[in-house]
Amino acid sequence: xxxxxxxxxxxxxxxxxxxLFPREASTIAPYADALYFFLLTxxxxxxxxxxxxxxxxxxxxRKEKHPVAEQIEGSTLLEATWTIIPLCLFLITFVWxxxxxxxxxxxxxxxxxxxxxxxxxxxxxxxxxxxxxxNALHVPTGRPIQLTMISQDVFHSFSIPDFRVKREVIxxxxxxxxxxxTTPGTYHIFCTQYCGTNHSAMIGxxxxxxxxxxxxxxxxxxSGMSLxxxxxxxxxxxxxxxxxxxxxxxxxxxxxxxxxSKLTLTNGSQALVDDAYLRDAILNPSEHITSGYAPxxxxxxxxxxxxxLIDLVEFIKTLQxxxxxxxxxxTADSNQQAxxxxxxxxx
Amino acid sequence: MSATSSTILNLPDQRTATLPKRHYxxxxxxLLSWLFTGDHKRIAILYLISxxxxxxxxxxxxxxxxxxxxxxxxxxxxxxxxxxxxxMHGIIMVFLFLVPSVPATLGNFxxxxxxxTKDLAFPKINLLSWYLYWVGGLFIMAALVLxxxxxxxxxxxxxxxxxxxxxxxxxxxxxxxxxxxxxxTGLNFIVTIHRMRAPGMTWFRMPLFVWSHYAASILMVLGxxxxxxxxxxxxLERTIGIGVFDPTKGGDPLLFQHLFWFYxxxxxxxxxxxxxxxxxxxxxxxxxxxxxxxxxxxxSSVAIALFGFFVWAHHMFIMGVSNYSALVFSxxxxxxxxxxxxxxxxxxxxxxxxxxxxxxxxxxxxGFMGLFTIGGMTGVxxxxxxxxxxxxxxxxxxxxxxxxxxxxxLMAFLSGVHFWWPKMTGRMYPExxxxxxxxxxxxGFNLTFxxxxxxxxxxxxxxxxxYPPEFQVLNVLSTAGATVLxxxxxxxxxxxxxxxxxxxxxxxxxxxxxxxxxxxQSPPLTENFIEIPVMDHEAYDYEWLAKKMxxxxxxxx
Lengths: 347, 557
Ligand code: HEM
Ligand SMILES: [Cu+2]
Prior knowledge:
The complex is a heterodimer of chains A (about 350) and B (about 550).
Chain A: H1 3-17, H2 29-60, H3 76-105, E1 112-119, E2 122-126, E3 132-134, E4 136-140, E5 145-151, E6 156-160, E7 165-169, E8 175-179, E9 185-191, E10 203-209, H4 211-220, H5 227-237, E11 262-264, E12 270-272, H6 275-283, H7 306-318, H8 323-334
Parallel strand pairs in A: 1-5, 4-10
Antiparallel strand pairs in A: 1-2, 2-3, 5-8, 6-7, 6-9, 9-10, 11-12
Chain B: H1 3-6, H2 31-35, H3 40-68, H4 79-98, H5 101-115, H6 123-145, H7 159-162, H8 168-195, H9 208-239, H10 253-287, H11 294-307, H12 323-350, H13 360-383, H14 385-391, H15 395-425, H16 431-458, H17 472-502, H18 542-556
Helix pairs in contact in B: 3-4, 3-5, 3-6, 3-17, 4-6, 5-8, 5-10, 5-15, 6-8, 8-9, 9-10, 9-11, 10-13, 10-15, 11-12, 12-13, 13-15, 13-16, 15-16, 16-17
The complex binds protoporphyrin IX containing FE (HEM) and copper (II) ion.
Keywords (chain B): Electron transport, Heme, Iron, Membrane, Metal-binding, Respiratory chain, Transmembrane, Transmembrane helix, Transport
Main location (chain B): membrane
GO molecular function, one term (chain B): cytochrome-c oxidase activity
C-alpha cells in the first residue's frame, strides 16, 4: 500500500474513534471524505491567512507604533491575485464536487432495486421478493443497491450519513439513490427534510449483512408473495386485464416487453417507458395515449396507493410475454390464486 | 491594552460639554410627533426599537430550542411545540430582524446624511413602510398567539398547504405585508441615491455604505415581489385548493421550491450586503485609511447582487433537478463566492500602513471578518455538488447560515450601532463594558456554532427535536455557547440604555471619521444640514479631514 493510503487509514480510524467523524461504510464514503478534507484544508489556510493579515497589521500598524497612516489607493496586482487564486480553488472544488455528484447519483446498471415509500412518519421499504420493512432496511455488502423512492404525502429526505448519501423523497415522482455498503453493521437512516410533527422520529436503521446472512434474512422474512405477484393480483382486481389482455383486438396496448422500450404517443412524441412513465400512465392515462389507441382508459388517481403502484409497475416490468396476462385473465375469472410468476426475480 | 494611548476617541471636555440645544430628538415633543414623523432619523429610531423587540423575542425562542437540545430525549417540550418554536424563531429572525436590520435602521438614519440631503425621496412612504412592518409583525405575532405555526420559515409545500392545521395563512400574510415594507425601503433608497445626491457627490465619491445599500435595494425591489407571489399561491392553495403545487392536480411541488428560493437566496444578500457596508466604514475609520481598492469593493457589491439572482437552485441539488442544471448552478455559486473573498482581502489590506485603534466597533468588525470567512468558506462546501449531498439538511447548514447571518450580519449590525450611537444619541457608552460585550459575543458565538459543523458532518439532521444519544456532547457544548452568546447580546441592551441618560457627551466627531455625517452636530438637526454641503473630496479622504480640523482649531483659537 502507498504510504499516503496508510496515513489516510490511520487518520480515518483516529477520527472515527474520537466521534468527530462518521463511519465510512460505503464505497462512496472515502471519496466524499477526500473532498471534505480538501475543503477543510483550504478553509483553514484561508482563515489563517486572513487572521495573520488582521493580527499582523494590527500589531505592526497600531496607533502607538504607526501614528500617521499612509494613504494607499489600491493595487491592481494584489486585487488580481486575490481574485484569481480563490477563483482557481473554487473551480477545482466545482469540478471535484461535480464528479462526486455524478458518481453518487448515477447507479450502475447491475444494481439491485429496492423500493422505498416515505410517509408521515415512517419509511417503508419493499424488496422485489415481497419482504416489507418499516423503518428498517436490510442490504448485503458488496452489491450495488438502488433505491427507487417516492413519498405518499409531503417532502421527505432519505439520508444515511455513514454512507454519505441522501436524496429528497418527493410526492408524485420517483427519485433514486444508490450505494454499495462495505462494512456489516447497523447505521442510522434519517429523514432530513422537515415533514411535520414527528419529523425527528422518522428514523430508521439500515442493517448491512454479508451476503450469506442476507440470503438467510430474505428467506426468513418473505411473505410468500413477491411485489410482482401482488401486482398481478391488483392487475386483475382493478380490471386492467379487461383491456390490456394482449390479444389482437384488445382496447389497450399490449404490455408485454413494454418496460424499457420507446413508445410513440398519439401526439407524435416518443416516451421511454420506465418506472416513472408507468406510474404516470396509470394515474394520468389521458396524457400518455399510445398511438393507435383511443383515450378511454380511466384514471386510477386516488384508487391505488403508492405501494400498489409499485406492485403494478413491478408486475409490468416482469412481463416478457403475454402468457402471464392470459393466466391472470383466467384466474381472475375463475377466482383462483395466480401461480408463481416466472421470471420474477427474488433478490 | 491601554485605553489612553490607543484610543482616538476625541470627546469634548465633559465638564463643559452639553448636547446641542435643538436636535431631531427634541425638536418636537409627544408620542404623536413620533408616530406621524416624516424624519428619516426618527423613523430609523422607531425601526431600531422595533427590531430590537423582535430580536429578543426570536432570541428567547432560540434559547428554548437550545435548552431542549441539551438532552437527546424529547423532554422539555412536545414535538409540535418544538416545531413551532423553531418556525417562529426562523420567521421572526429572518423577516422581522435580519432583512430590515441594517437598511431600515442605520440605512434610514444615514443614507440621506451621507448623500448630503435633508431626507429620503419619499418621507411619507418611509413612514408607511414602518407601519407595514408592524402590521406584518402583528400578523405574525397573532399567528403565534393563536397557537403558532409549524412550517419552518421555508413554508415548504405540500406540508404547509395540505398537512398542517396551524395558522399558516396568518403568518404568510404577515410576511407578505412586511415584504412591502422592504420593497418600499428599497425603492426609497434607489430613488434617493439616483436623484438627491448633494452637489459634487459623484457615484465614486459615495461612501461604500451607500453602495452596498444600493445593491441590496436592487435585490429588495426585484426579489421581494416573487416572495409575495409565492406566499399568495400558498394561501390560495390552502384555502381554495388551486393546485399549482399539488401533484394530484397536475401541479408541481418543486415549483414552490424554485419560487421560494428565487427570493430567499437573494434575500441572504439583502441581509449581508448592508452589513458589509458597515464594515467598510468602520475599518476605514479605525485604520484611518482609505478603503483599499474602493472601486473593486463597490463593484463587487453590485456583482454579488446581480449574480445572487442566478444561484437559487443550489438549495435544491438533492431534489431531483437535472444533473446538468445542478452543474450550472454549482458553477455560478462558485463564481458568486469570489466577490465575497475579494472583500475580505480588501478590508484586511485596508489595515496595511494604517494607524489602527481598537474601539468597540472595530472589535465587532474584526469578529465579522473572522466569522464571515468561515461562513463564506463553508458555503463553498455546500456549493460543491457531491459534498452538498451529505451536508445539506443537517446541522452543517444551520452552522453555515448562522455564521453568515448571525456571525456576519449581526456582528456588522452591532458594529454599526456602536459606531453611530454617538451620532444618533449624542452620547457615548461605557467603553470597557462594550469591549467586553464584543469579546463575549465572539467567544459565545464560536462555542455555539462550531460544534454544529461537526454535528452536521456526523449527520445530525436539522429541525430535530430529539436525536440519537451519540450527538449529545456536541449539543451540550453548543447550548453552553448559546448561554454565553445570550449574555453577549443582553449586555449592549443594558449599557446602551444606560448611556441614553448617563453616557458622556460625544461631540460631533468622536472617532475623527471622514463621513459627512460626522461633520454635522450630534444628534443632528431635523433637517440634517443648515446648508446643503458641497462634496469636494472623495469618501475616506483623511488628508481633507486633517486640513479641516486644523482650520477649525485656528478659527476657534
Ligand atoms: C443565541 C443565539 C441563537 C441560537 C442558540 C440559535 C439556535 C438555532 C437553532 C438550534 C436552530 C435550528 C433549529 C432546528 O433546525 O431544529 C436555529 C435556526 C435558525 N436560526 Fe437561530 N439561533 C440563534 C440566533 C439566531 C439569530 C440571531 C438569528 C437571526 C438573526 C437566527 C436565525 C435563524 C434562522 C433563520 C433559523 C432557521 C430556522 C429554520 O430552520 O426554519 N438565529 N437557530
Ligand atoms: Cu420525513
